[in-house]
Amino acid sequence: MGVRKAVVLGGYGLIGSACMRALADAGFHVTGIGRSESAAMKAAPSADWLIRDIPDLTVEEWRRLLADTDVVVNASGALQDGARDDLVAIHVNAVSRLVEAAAGLSLRIVQISAAGVSKEAPTAFFRTKARGDAIISAHATDWVILRPTLVLSHEAYGGTALLRAAAALPLTAPRILPEAQVQTVYVGDVATAVVATARGEVPSGLIADLTEPDAHAFPALVEAIRHWQGWPAPVFHPVVPAIFMSAMGRGADLLGHLGWRSPLRTTALTALRDGIRGDPGPWDKADGCPCRPLESTLSLLPATRQERLFARAYLVLPIAIATLALFWCLSGLITLFNPAQAVLVLTSRAVPAWLAELAVIGGAIADLFLGLAILWRRWTRPAALGMLCLSAAYLIGSVTFAPDLWADPLGPMVKVFPGMALAAMVWLLMEER
């Protein structure tokens, strides 16, 4: 028997990347599929990749891809509709084409779903996931559906990143959704379950939650993460009103249209409010390896200095982006509101009027453009770099045409440097997952 082949959809995601590593370690030849080449190379530069947007794959393309494949692991998904995501396209249409292409082939489909999915669920995420699960269970020949609860991993993304950040708040531990009950699962246990399923060690037709046995109140879970990270006990425990959380969710939804996949979107908050619960019984009865409890999971994830720095950086980054957007937009608008005064600053220093007007109007428009562009996820890094370059141009121009401004008691030129440092921080910290 030759080397068995596996295809992992969403291979550079939190769960997908763990599945790719585990399957490769188990002797499978693994191909990952995802739409971002840069993210794929960061996740597994030596792996085989098909760089495609999964919903765009046709039935014929699926058939060619699956011709010599033994197992397909669908770890792709999106939390909420937005500028970059279409839930029906990824959770329903793509699954339908995959199942149609797999008809008549000797392969197993392993669907990574989510605990709590149902067609009557309050969020589109759970409803569309349930529709995809139903397509597989009704039409696929050999299939297993695994439904993990909140996945904890060495990597931090989405809800797990927010959990780390909330635990890292200095001096305070806000009481958010105190009634919410959450169960967790170690990403390694999910990957182990996928390998066992890919090997045929569990029967076809199994639908099973992957979860620890016990649930935790959400504030207690945040407290456990805080203790694991090594932060001192909080001094304040303010209660966050539900209306405030709802407003934050709606704001995060709006940012989703600019490409931001915030874990504070209403889908995530609704899921937390309703609780993330699962039943480990079906998986245990299928002779699957039991999923470890939270304490054991955290013991496998050492909280290093890098972990703490990430948690604090995750808190600071959106503040830095918002600050830069406000600063640059106001700078441009104030200049455009009274350009004559800005032109006078240059013409009084022997700068030709045409050049002064060009520099003032052009600079104001550039300021406004960069301030808006940094809010669009796709352009955040280029905009931050543009802010650095334009700030440097302003500094050079001031030295050339208005060196006396450097001696101004209010320090207008010296104050450019903190803004440049903030833009440099955003440029360095922003990356694709």
From TrEMBL:
The chain crosses the membrane at residues 313-334, 354-376, 383-401, 413-430. The keyword DNA repair does not apply. Signal peptide: none annotated. InterPro entries: ComplexI_NDUFA9_subunit, DoxX-like, NAD(P)-bd_dom, NAD(P)-bd_dom_sf. One of its GO terms (molecular function) is protein-containing complex binding. It holds the Pfam family NAD_binding_10. This is NAD-dependent epimerase/dehydratase family protein. It comes from Paracoccus alkanivorans.
